[in-house]
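Sequence in, structure out.
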Amino acid sequence: MSSEQVEGLGKLLADKAKLAYSAGSNLIRIDVQPEALKETALRLRDYGFDHCSSVTAVDYPKENRMEVVWHLSSYLKPELSRYTAGLIVSVSRDKPEVASLVGIWEGVIFLERETHEMFGVNFVGHPDQRPLLLPEELMGAWPLRKDYQLKKRREDLFKKGGAPP
C-alpha cells in the first residue's frame, strides 16, 4: 500500500465526508471535537467503515488529557479493507467523558466497557458500563493509566485482606 494511495483515500474522505485527516502507512487519523463525534462516526459508517475493531485510550498525564480512539475498518468494501481509520477525540483527564458509539457500531458495546474500566472514560449513552474484566477490588483504579502504581495497589490489597491482582 503506497502512501499516495492512503493520501488519496484521506483526500476523498475530506471531500466526500468533509473530514479533516492526516495519513500515514495504512492508517488515517481523524481528529474530531467531542460534539462532532457522532456525526463524524455516522459519516464514516455511511462511507463504508462498517466495523469497529477496537476502542482504547491514550493517556497524557502531563498534558492532563486523554485521547479516546475507535479503530474502524471495512469488511464490505474491498477498496477500504486495506485501511484503518482512527477516529480520535481528546478529552480532559480529570473528567474523561465522550459519547458512546454503540448506536452506530453495535459491536463497540464491550470495547467501550473495557476502555471505561481500564482508563476511567465515561461513555455517555452507553447502555451497560458495569465491570467487564477487573475484580471488585480494582474498580476505579484505572490500571492502564500511566500513573497507576501496581506495587502500591498490591500492598493496599494485602493490607485489606484481598487477593493479589
